[in-house]
């Protein structure tokens, strides 16, 4: 006779929405131990077996699970904590149409077919999104975007600038659920004497959204908005940014 002893601890899980998930906690003792599972410190109704089974995982199942084991003599012990991370399927990424200014000063949308990437193969952190916004001098060369620091030499070279795709690499390492990059800058490269800096290509993932202030090989412009001067992209982004819509829909509204 003696207090219960846990011989098999539950293991952390990372599962997708809609999948089946299970946690196991096996204990020994005389009298025979009884089980009670908890999520985030709250007892789960009807979860009183050694194995906790979730037949269809939903986002609400995300949390920290523990199992308390007790016998009729009120002797009790607890399992180690097991984190269950639920991954929500993220839709495809879209490279949205951009803005161009015609000579008459009218806004003109240059439409292009959306760029579709496959879904990410690696799991993403639940609900964790990353947003990167840049407004300033920049350019695009060979499909790569560069931000020009205020202290860059004149004339500047790619190695004097910050590559946006390198920032995206850092974001992808964190396995975020969604990465949004808003580039309020020019995309025109004037100095053809220098090639872009070396950078390994990014593996396509389905959780990236780009928003550009202008079309390829074009300049971004500013407008006077009351007492302040701001980019045209920002002027229209402020009108839609607080709306409860998908980020892709917000950026499409900005481009209209």
Automatic annotation (TrEMBL):
The UniProt record lists the Ig-like domain at: 4-85
Which InterPro entries does this UniProt record tie to the protein?
A: Caspase-like_dom_sf, Caspase-related_regulators, Ig-like_dom, Ig-like_dom_sf, Ig-like_fold, Ig_sub, Ig_sub2, Pept_C14_caspase
- UniProt GO molecular function: cysteine-type endopeptidase activity
Its domain of life reads Eukaryota
Report the SUPFAM superfamilies cross-referenced here. Caspase-like, Immunoglobulin
In the UniProt record, the signal sequence range is none
Which GO terms fall under biological process for this protein? Answer: proteolysis
Q: Which SMART domains match?
A: IG, IGc2
PROSITE patterns the record matches: IG_LIKE
Record protein name field: Ig-like domain-containing protein
Q: Which organism is it from?
A: Scyliorhinus torazame (Cloudy catshark)
């Amino acid at each position: 006779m003696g207090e219960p002893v846990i011989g098999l601890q539950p293991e952390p899980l990372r599962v997708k929405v809609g999948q089946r998930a299970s946690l196991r906690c096996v204990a020994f003792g005389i009298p025979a131990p009884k089980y009670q599972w908890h999520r985030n410190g709250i007892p789960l109704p009807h979860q009183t077996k050694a194995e906790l089974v979730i037949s269809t995982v939903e986002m609400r199942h995300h949390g920290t699970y523990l199992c308390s084991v007790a016998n009729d003599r009120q002797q009790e012990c607890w399992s180690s904590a097991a984190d269950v991370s639920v991954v929500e399927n993220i839709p495809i990424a879209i490279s949205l149409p951009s803005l161009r200014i015609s000579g008459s000063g009218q806004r003109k949308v240059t439409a292009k077919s959306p760029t579709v990437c496959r879904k990410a193969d690696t799991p993403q952190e639940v609900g964790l999104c990353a947003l990167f916004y840049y407004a300033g001098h920049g350019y695009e060369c060979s499909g790569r975007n560069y931000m020009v620091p205020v202290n860059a030499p004149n004339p500047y070279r790619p190695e004097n600038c910050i590559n946006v795709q390198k920032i995206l690499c850092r974001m992808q390492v964190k396995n975020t659920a969604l990465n949004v990059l808003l580039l309020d800058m020019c995309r025109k490269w004037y100095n053809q004497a220098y090639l872009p800096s070396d950078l390994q290509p990014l593996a396509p993932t389905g959780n990236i959204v780009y928003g550009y202030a202008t079309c390829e090989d074009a300049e971004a412009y500013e407008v006077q908005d009351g007492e302040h001067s701001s980019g045209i992209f920002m002027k229209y982004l402020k009108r839609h940014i607080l709306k409860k819509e998908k980020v892709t829909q917000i950026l499409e509204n900005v481009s209209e």
